[in-house]
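Task 17 of the worksheet. Students: predict the tertiary structure of the chain below and write it out as C-alpha cells. Keep your answer in the requested format; marks are given for formatting as well as content.
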Amino acid sequence: ELLERGCNVTIVEKESNLGGNSSKATTGIAAPGSSIQKAAGVTDFGSDLTGEGGAAEALVKNGPKDVEWLTTTLGVSSELVLRLTPGHGNTPRTIGTKTHFPGAVITYAAIHVLGQVAQGKPDRLQIISSARVTKLLTTGPKVIGVELTRESGAVESLQGLVVITAGGFAGACGRGSVLARHAPGMLKFPTTNDERANGDSITLGQAVGAGTANLDKVE
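Model answer:
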C-alpha cells in the first residue's frame, strides 16, 4: 500500500527469506462482512467481536476491505474459500484457501510480487535480508530511522519513517521472554511458532516508549 501511495520502501528482514512464521498459518483470516460471506448469503456485522477492544473494532471496521485489497493485489482471490472456525460461534467468517495452508498461499504470493517490484523498480523498493534491526533511532519522541546489523557484522543506519510489521513472540519461551513476562501460563503448551517469532520487534518498540496492548491474549 505504501508503494501504491508513492512512497519508496526498504524492507529489512532478519532471516534470509521473507515470510516469517505467518507462512505456516493454517487457519485463515477472520473478516466479518467480507464479500465472500455476502456471496455465500452470510450476514455478519461482527457484533460478537466489537466488545473485545480497539483491535477487534478495527478488525470489524477495516478487515473486509483490507483483506480484499490484499488478495486482489496478490492475485489469489480465486483460491479463497469461506470456513467456520473455532472462536467465531456459528458464523463462517474465516477466509481460507482451497489448497495448501492459507499462510503459505498468501505469504508466498506477496513475496513473489515484492520480488518483482524490487527487481523492476529498485529505486522504489529495496529488500535487505539477513539483517537485524538492533535499534530504533529517535529525535525527541519521534522515531526517525533504524540501526541494523548485517550478517557480515557491518552496522548501518537508515533514515525515514518506520513501520514495524512483525509482532509474534510465542516462539521464545525462555526466562525474560515476552511470552514469559506477559502470558506465563502459556509456557507449558506446545506451539507451532518457531524461533523467528521471538518478540524482538516488541522489545524494539518498548525501548523507545511505544505502548502495547493485549500481550496476554495468546491463543
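Marker's comment: The longest strand covers residues 131-139. Residues 178 and 199 are 6 Å apart (CA to CA).
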